[in-house]
């Protein structure tokens, strides 16, 4: 995929300083080594020279330029995030080579391998996330505009519920903090002595409480491999992780407690339209529970 003559939009300026390499296993691009992790949009590999390669899956090829542009914004803002050394193409797939991302394993693999660290891992993620929210990057997209668009397009949710979510959204404060907006266990790389959030393609400028509300939904819900005791243990582990994550985040930002709860409905509706399968069904049940709680509160307010 040549990058000449291709419309790249506003990200072109911020990626123009990066070197670009195109290869097909002939040595012009480092050969991927150990697979560090795999998500819905990409695979992450360790390279023999100590760097890390994120290789986009074919359906998400356009995100390479988008994420490179966002990471350039984050670098200028001083955010602890991957730094792009080179944009590459390997066997027709675009990728990003990161110079400062240490090889490790995803948080999901870490917790499965060492389940006794689940509370400590959740608290470490909360600290990473809170540190991100200390930064501003005016060049990032608007979080509010994106959430509003996602709610409007969440066809799986009844129109009256979408209307309620938009009404709630209108009452919530905006912000200008850096927000990852896609925090879950596959988007964190951990290594001895630290860790880093990865996959910043959806990052925005906005309200940290909205970012946390979305993270809680993604950390709590999802597919469960298998059945029986293992599946039940995973569900318990997710609840424990979420409680520890939120508890630590609120230790660092105690003023955010009420606001995170207020963002729960818009965040859930926006996310439900982007998910499918079991997670989408869980999100719809969560939305229904939030609506019942909202209605109960309104009834109490009407009491003499």
Shape: globular
CATH superfamily placement of the largest domain: Aminoglycoside phosphotransferase (APH), C-terminal lobe
Report the order of strands and helices.
HEEEEHEEEHHHHEEEEHHHHH
Looking at the structure, the CATH topology of the largest domain is Aminoglycoside 3'-phosphotransferase, Chain: A, domain 2
- Our estimate of the beta-strand percent is 15-25%
- Uncertain runs are 1-27
Estimate percent helicity: 40-55%
Number of strands: 11
Euclidean distance between termini CA atoms: 68 Å
Q: Largest sheet at a glance?
A: 6 strands, mixed
Q: Helical element count? A: 11
Would you identify the CATH architecture of the largest domain?
A: Alpha-Beta Complex
> What is the typical, i.e. mean, pLDDT?
87
The CATH class of the largest domain turns out to be Alpha Beta
Query: Structural class given helices, strands, pairing?
Result: alpha+beta
Radius of gyration: 20 Å
Number of domains: 2
Strand order within the widest sheet? Answer: 1-5-6-4-3-2
Report on the structure:
This protein has 304 residues and is an alpha+beta fold. It folds into two domains: 9-98, Phosphorylase Kinase, domain 1; 105-302, Aminoglycoside phosphotransferase (APH), C-terminal lobe (Aminoglycoside 3'-phosphotransferase, Chain: A, domain 2, Alpha-Beta Complex), CATH 3.90.1200. The chain contains eleven helices and eleven strands. The strands form three sheets. A six-stranded mixed beta sheet has the order 1-5-6-4-3-2, covered by helices on one side. Helix 4 (118-132) crosses helix 8 and helix 5 (143-152) packs antiparallel against helix 6. The radius of gyration is 20 Å and the shape is globular.
């Amino acid at each position: 995929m040549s990058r000449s003559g291709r419309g790249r939009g506003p990200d072109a300026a911020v990626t123009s300083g990066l070197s670009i390499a195109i290869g097909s296993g002939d040595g012009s691009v480092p050969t991927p080594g150990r697979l560090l992790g795999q998500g819905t949009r990409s695979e992450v590999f360790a390279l023999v020279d100590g760097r890390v390669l994120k290789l986009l899956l074919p359906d998400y090829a356009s995100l390479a330029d988008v994420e490179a542009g966002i990471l350039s914004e984050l670098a200028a803002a001083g955010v602890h995030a991957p730094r792009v050394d080179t944009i590459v193409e390997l066997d027709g797939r675009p990728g990003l080579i990161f110079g400062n991302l240490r090889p490790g394993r995803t948080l999901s693999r870490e917790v499965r391998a060492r389940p006794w660290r689940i509370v400590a891992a959740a608290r470490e993620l909360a600290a990473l996330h809170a540190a991100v929210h200390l930064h501003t990057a005016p060049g990032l997209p608007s979080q509010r505009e994106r959430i509003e668009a996602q709610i409007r397009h969440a066809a799986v949710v009844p129109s009256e519920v979408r209307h309620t979510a938009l009404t709630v959204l209108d009452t919530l404060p905006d912000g200008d903090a850096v927000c990852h907006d896609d925090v879950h266990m596959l988007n964190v790389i951990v290594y001895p002595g630290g860790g880093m959030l990865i996959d910043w393609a959806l990052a925005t400028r906005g309200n940290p409480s909205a970012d946390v509300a979305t993270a809680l939904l993604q950390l709590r819900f999802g597919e469960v491999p298998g059945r029986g005791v293992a599946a039940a243990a995973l569900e318990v582990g997710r609840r424990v992780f979420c409680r520890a994550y939120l508890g630590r985040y609120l230790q660092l930002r105690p003023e955010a407690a009420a606001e995170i709860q207020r963002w729960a409905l818009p965040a859930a509706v926006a996310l439900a339209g982007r998910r499918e399968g079991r997670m989408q069904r869980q999100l719809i049940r969560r939305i229904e529970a939030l609506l019942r709680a909202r209605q109960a509160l309104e009834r109490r307010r009407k009491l003499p």
